[in-house]
Amino acid sequence: MYLKRASKAIEDNVLKKTKEVNLRLGIRTEIDLKVYLRLNKDSTLVITETGQVGMTILTDQELINMVTNGKAVLIRDEIKI
After folding, report:
1. CA-based nearest residue to 38, from 50, 56, 52
2. What is d(CA 62, CA 43) in angstroms, rounded to the nearest whole number?
3. pLDDT tens sequence across 19-34
4. How many CA atoms lie within 13 A of 36 on its CB side?
5. How far apart are CA 36 and CA 57, in angstroms?
6. Which of 15, 25, 45, 75 has the highest Cβ tally under 10 A?
7. CB of 30 within 8 A of CB of 59?
8. In this structure, how many other beta carbons lie within 10 angstroms of the beta carbon of residue 65?
9. How far is CA 6 from CA 34, 44, 78, 80, in A?
10. pLDDT above 60 for 76
11. Which distant-in-sequence residues (6+ apart) come within 8 Å of 69 by Cβ?
12. Which residues pair with 78 in a beta bridge?
């Protein structure tokens, strides 16, 4: 799986919705969340079975842990997992 940081507009929209859902469910929302688009090896967007663009939300620490544990490799402006 490859990841690319989502644009500010996409990230703001996704994180706003995430915070609203978490608030309703009483779940704490991390403050350093980042939204990443999931990409195929050819850099096209991953489309889910429901037709949505594949995304993942990670904290800075989660991303750092993935890189330091060898689970992710930085490739230019993309991240391979």
Report:
1. 56
2. 23
3. 999 999 998 887 889 9
4. 21
5. 6
6. 15
7. yes
8. 13
9. 8, 13, 11, 15
10. no
11. none
12. 4, 75
How many angstroms separate the CA atoms of 48 and 58, rounded?
A: 19
**What is the DSSP annotation of the chain?**
-EEEEPPHHHHHHHHHHHHHHHHHHT----SSEEEEEEE-TTSPBPB-TTSPBPEEEEEHHHHHHHHHTTS-EEETTEEE-
For the record, the structure tokens of 21 come out as 């859902």
- The model's pTM is 0.81
Residue with tokens 């993309």: 78
Burial class (CB in 10 A: 0-12, 13-18, 19+), 49: exposed
